[in-house]
Amino acid sequence: MSDELRVQGMDVYYGASQILFGIDLAVERGATVALLGRNGAGKSTTFKAIAGVAPPRAGRVFMREQDITGFAPYRIARRGIGYVPEDRQVFPEHSVEDNLRIGAKPGTDGAVHWTLERIFEVFPILSSMRGRMAGRLSGGEQQMLTIARTLMGNPDVILLDEPSEGLAPIIVQQIARLIATLRKEGVTILLAEQNMHFCIAVATSVAIIDKGQIVYRGSIEELKHNDDIKRRYLAV
Ligand SMILES: Nc1ncnc2c1ncn2[C@@H]1O[C@H](COP(=O)(O)OP(=O)(O)O)[C@@H](O)[C@H]1O
Ligand SMILES: [Mg+2]
């Protein structure tokens, strides 16, 4: 089995307070794994730890079997991890196209799968806005731009932190369709979400996090029929 990304026994602290307890996660090549959990469960902290923004105090992070634990964020990015944080950081005074160009780099194998042309095919809405200042886009459009900019770095794995958060239902549907398209493109995705319905639509498997610990792991099909787990750990 080829895991693209693997996290083993990861503990993370903010100062003296422990936030994550022995997190284990594996994301196979081409999979879309959802990290589901309520607000405050530890999803963003897990992503920050993988991306090197909040380095773990214990445990290991492997990217294609290479140990990248404790690496600086830019080195982790160069190992093929694309990180889309929850606060959608676009460069507001720059055009959509410039925002995309800023993210451009070849992949770990030196190949460029995601060119501007490919991005505009997959994100037609961005194509029609390519000259617009990013700061003038709607929340949903900024979310798409942030995802697109990260893809311009040709990552092997993309970490999407709550892409549906704060968006209107119709935009959430668009983002879900986009993620399904990325999956068909072969992008490996780790997705943090509170919204189980969103995950059911796009993910292949799920890990539920609660109070900094993984409490459930299974296929989306299994989760759909497990009312007890849904009641206990998710706001459904
Ligand atoms: N910078 C920080 N300093 C201290 N505690 C934090 C910080 N960021 C988050 N926390 C705490 O860590 C826990 C997990 O937060 P977070 O990972 O953001 O959860 P989620 O993304 O699942 O909502 C919460 O209890 C939160 O209050
Ligand atoms: Mg979060």
What would you note in describing this structure?
This protein is an alpha/beta fold and 236 residues long. The chain has one domain: P-loop containing nucleotide triphosphate hydrolases (Rossmann fold). The protein has ten helices and ten strands. The protein has helices spanning 43-51, 73-78, 96-102, 116-122, 124-127, 139-151, 169-184, 196-202, 220-224, 227-233; strands at residues 3-14, 17-28, 32-36, 58-63, 66-67, 81-84, 157-161, 188-193, 205-210, 213-219. The protein has a six-stranded mixed β-sheet, sandwiched between helices. The chain has a four-stranded antiparallel β-sheet with strand order 2-1-4-5, with helices on one face. β7, α7 and β8 (188-193) form a beta-alpha-beta unit. It is globular and about 45 Å long. The two termini are 33 Å apart. The mean pLDDT is 94.
Strand-helix topology:
Elements lengths: L2 E12 L2 E12 L3 E5 L6 H9 L6 E6 L2 E2 L5 H6 L2 E4 L11 H7 L13 H7 L1 H4 L11 H13 L5 E5 L7 H16 L3 E6 L2 H7 L2 E6 L2 E7 H5 L2 H7 L3
Parallel strand pairs: 3-8, 3-9, 6-7, 7-8
Antiparallel strand pairs: 1-2, 1-4, 4-5, 9-10
Helix pairs in contact: 3-6, 7-8
The structure holds adenosine-5'-diphosphate (ADP) and magnesium ion.
The site of adenosine-5'-diphosphate has 10 residues, from α1.
According to CATH, the homologous superfamily is P-loop containing nucleotide triphosphate hydrolases
- Domains, number: 1
CA radius of gyration? 17 Å
Q: What proportion of the residues is helical, as a percent range?
A: 25-40%
- What top-tier CATH class fits best? Alpha Beta
Q: Would you give the CATH topology?
A: Rossmann fold
Specify the biggest β-sheet: 6 strands, mixed
Please state roughly what percent of the residues sit in beta strands, choosing from under 5%, 5-15%, 15-25%, 25-35%, 35-45% or over 45%. 25-35%
Contiguous uncertain segments of 5+ residues? none
